[in-house]
Amino acid sequence: MKQRSVASMMDLIEQVAVQDDNIRAVGMEGSRNNPSIQQDQFADFDITYFVTDPTPFRQNDAWLDVFGDRLMMQKPTGALFSGTMQPWYPYLMQFTDGNRLDLKIADVRDKDAYLAAEHLNTVIFDKDNQIEGQPEASDWDFHIAVPSEEAFQNSVNEFFWVSLYVVKGLQRKQLLYANQYMDDPVRKELLRMLEWSVGVSTNFQANVGKNDGRLADSLSETDYERLIDTYKLDDLANTWLALQTASQLFIETARVVADQMGFSFPDYPQAVIHYEAQIMNEN
Q: Which GO terms describe its molecular function (predicted)?
């Protein structure tokens, strides 16, 4: 099936709102509002309908059929944006033509809180003309945050403390145990430190994307290859190599961050690396 164009999807989204008096405004958020990234066919349509009464939309899902042939749908629960006062009702829909619509039903009284929550949130259609002078959409909220020294020291400590768990798992020949700690928090902290290094090199004006999707664009080819090597966890020997690579890359990156931010760098990481090598070389 040919994928519907962006224009046809946006026309459909607006027409549904126009034809239903209960829908008072349409909000758009997320990556399609981000001027700093290139759009592709996999970008979601993140849309919010601000309504007078959410009840009719909750009675059944038949009203959603107008948006197209669904492959599947998810209806999560929980708050989506801070400051909103009423329940929100999300309908995350993947269509068979490749488009995805993340649609939310929100009380119209939450419109101001929605706009205040993120700089990528905009109202693109408003029957009551209550939104004027909206600022230009920006990914400012998703720029890499400046770390405090406490956050930096906690990251270093967490990385090397849990690296010892990885070694324990390897020595016990428990690959799944070792790899779970390798994935989180060891590599998680490595990624955090790499993000901070990008931050210091860009005056914290960079956004590396959801789940570090664009982090590679800001790393040297060598560092990116080393990072990828930390994902090679298919046997005990490779996990040990991955941990060694991660540790060296972490230390090098953390020293740069510490130097640029004026943080102190502790002595124990090298001692931990030496200790782990001793343990691994005993067998």
A: transferase activity
